[in-house]
Amino acid sequence: MTRLINIAGLSVRQGAVLALTDVDFHIDRGEIVTVVGPNGSGKSTLMKAIIGALKPAAGRIERAAGLRIGYVPQKLHIDPTLPMTVTRFLNLPRRVSREEIDHALEKAGLHDLADRQMTRLSGGQFQRVLLARALLDDPDLLILDEATQGLDQPGSAAFYRRIEEVRAEMGCAVLMVSHELHVVMAASDRVICLNRHVCCHGTPEKVASAPEYRALFGTGTGGALALYRHDHSHEEGCGHDHDHDHPSEAAE
Amino acid sequence: MNILDNFMNRAALAGLGVTVAAAPLGCFVVWRRMAYFGDATAHASILGVALALSFNISVFAGALAVALAMATTVSVLSGRGYTMDTLLGVMAHSALAFGLVAVSFLQGVRLDLMAYLFGDILAVGRTDLAVIWGGAILVVALVGWRWSALLTATLNPDLAYADGIDPRREQMVLTLALAVVVAVAIKVVGVLLIAAMLIVPPAAARPFARTPEAMALISTLIGAVSVLGGLQGALILDTPTGPTIVCVAAILFLLVSIGNSLRIMAGQGGGK
Lengths: 252, 272
Known about the structure:
The complex is a heterodimer of chains A (252) and B (272).
Chain A: E1 3-14, E2 17-28, E3 32-36, H1 43-51, E4 58-63, E5 69-72, H2 86-90, H3 98-107, H4 123-135, E6 141-145, H5 153-170, E7 173-177, H6 181-187, E8 190-194, E9 198-202, H7 204-209, H8 211-217, H9 224-232
Parallel strand pairs in A: 3-7, 3-8, 5-6, 6-7
Antiparallel strand pairs in A: 1-2, 1-4, 8-9
Chain B: H1 7-31, H2 35-54, H3 59-77, H4 84-105, H5 113-118, H6 126-145, H7 147-155, H8 157-162, H9 167-189, H10 194-205, H11 212-237, H12 241-269
Helix pairs in contact in B: 1-6, 1-9, 1-10, 1-11, 2-3, 2-4, 2-9, 2-10, 3-4, 3-9, 6-9, 7-9, 10-11, 10-12, 11-12
């Protein structure tokens, strides 16, 4: 196993508040790791710190030498005044050949829209073009930040199936943030439950039964749908019924 | 005989120089919704003109320095308590007001003020022409060099970071280019109408373009037609040249918009 990213004691400041405190995290080659957590729990902050968009206030982020990261952002708004074909978009910021583009589009599960305008794509097509762009560099690590936001359930299920296929074909590690626990849990090797710090982590089964996780996502977690529904009503985060009595849990 | 001996030729070349720089840069101003930012930077530069006249240095240098200071200050301050919109409103109009007051202290300048507010393209000399084209080439080189990085940062800052591009640095590139364009365009269209040269040609070019590069090229073309048409129009109608150039650009934008609306309506009426 090659360690792709190792994070120790990471704290990140967003404005005046600490969005992340003392986070330990790692991901190895070929793993699928999912980060779950309520809104405002610092999931996107963690992704941004990993791609280098946010500087750590404390701690360190180590990347494997020559690590290639493919990043699919949470949402990408293209201003209607900006004309952009799919092909042109895939050529940013580096020019690539037509074959590479066709290959990446095919891997992302798309056909015959290389010449379409980005603003004319459906939500699902748009996300797959973002995925194709992330795959162009043949990445060691694919980072997806709530990549299925705005897709309906069959759409996002199809998207995640595609991600699993991509991992199987290319052998890249996948790090993803998701709200859709029921979809994501099944596909992940490890799950990290985040709420400004690492609440709990481990295999999906272990996390789903952990008290910290239940405190965040509700106790009546019999069915997947219950998880999903609860997630939406849990804007305030944990903190009330969730004591931070497991400081050593974060370190593996 | 030299073609630069004729003031109309010099005016045309000056206008084309501004267009070559303003059109591609203006595309980014439109894509990034920086229209007001461009306007504010331009308005502030009148303070630079006043300072330059009182210290007897080149107007170009004065305007460049103040435009740069203004654009940098707004970039740095935005997101710290005030929105960009409010900051621009405060700083642009303050700088314009201070500039106008400062100019009033200078003797003999009062008559010239109109030339700086609305431009005086027919009075462009050989030195002005050299400065304009020097600035234009600098801006085109800068924007051309950073083109892909600028586009990526414009699409999404996080996408840029993931590709190893620092969006803040690209913002500074645009800020610098904007200050240069403002400084060279004062003589041609004046501080009040510079933003029009940045925004109207790209807006008119949008319906024709399928890629960012095409939009930049078509904007340049539309800007060039506006400059040459405006010069001719001003000569025939005996109107102020800078505003006439902007009027031609605005009319082109209007025609394109009407044409585009008709095309869309025809497409919808086609029974598909």
